[in-house]
Design goal:
Blueprint (H helix, E strand, L loop, with lengths): L9 H25 L5 H15 L3 E4 L2 E3 L4 H8 L1 H18 L8 H26 L7 H30 L6 H33 L15 E6 L2 E6 L12 H16 L11 H9 L26 H27 L6 H6 L11
Antiparallel strand pairs: 1-2, 3-4
Length: about 350
Amino acid sequence: MHVPDGFLDAPVSVATGVVAAGAVAVSLRGARRELDERTAPLAGLVAAFIFAVQMLNFPVAAGTSGHLLGGALATVLVGPYTAVLCLAVVLLMQGLLFADGGLTALGTNITVMGVVTALVALLVFHGLLRVLPRRGGARVPVAVATFAAALVSVPASAIAFTGLYAIGGTADVSLGRVFAAMVGVHVLIGIGEAVITTATVGAVLAVRPDLVRAARSFTRPALVIRGGSGAVTPTPAPEPAAAPARPLRPLWLGGLGVAVVLAAFVSFYASAEPDGLERVATDEGIAEEARAHDLADSPLADYGVRDVDNARLSTGLAGAAGVAVTLAAGSAVFLAVRRRPGGADDATTGTSGRRETVAP
């Protein structure tokens, strides 16, 4: 759902740019509460993984494909503020290096694909966790909430785009038809998003449940009710003895390996059909307003390496390069904003200060 230049007029593009800039600024501050030395490298990996999976367009209908947006995935794994930053990094790398998503539409894409999906996923996920039974551990309720959050976040993003187009669209089209087509196809894409997101979260939850941020409420100590003098006072139960630190390097390297394989090898077999937005834009006459990307001649444009004639090799090299630069950019941001052990932020959040081995 990468919006190109030309779909929206200048005022709306500027407005969404302001919204995106504000959301990123707020998220940079909020991510400090979500990230520490243990989780910051994992957030960089999440951004790289989202980049890789977004290359894997899957068919959803005749002549139409879809791909992961990733807002729900990042929200469940690393938190909503960090999720917005993950999507901002991914979209920035895609726009600057791969000519995917317009430069003047960058704010629109961050707003629609990052802010909206993260916010909707957060509300749906935690709303369901409040009503789902918690017996039997975290896996089932977290899986159900994750599936629903991912499923709903995609058509919500499509609705947000349609709303923006109603305000500042550059083509004279039937908004009712655009709305129906966008929501219809993105519900189908949302099913694919939900499957991928739930499978990924489930895999991490099975290996390291402590690293799934949204599941941590299941492992918090229970409250002990102590009565005395006619009063009942809830008191936190004693925390269990600290478990030996578990190295994160194997998980980090394994996740990176999966991202590289997906981007460098599996992406060659992705569907070549237009995605949901491209299909609707073509069918409804919006595509005619799209402007050529300002960086269409960049060496990695369209996820291929210029002057490399072998299509498989060209796509693979571009995918591997994309994972590398997204990982580097994301990790730099997240390591810069993370909480430092013993700092004021660390003290106010009540973290234990335990260190774990992470990949460099």
